[in-house]
Amino acid sequence: MLTKITGLAGALATLMAIVTAFMPMEGLNVALGLLALGMIAGISIADDMMARIGIATLALPVAGAAMVAVPAVGTQLGAMLSGFGLVAAGAFGVAATIRMVTRAIATLKGLAGGASS
Question: I need a surface site. Which of 48, 88, 98, 104 has the fewest CB within 10 A?
Answer without folding.
Answer: 48
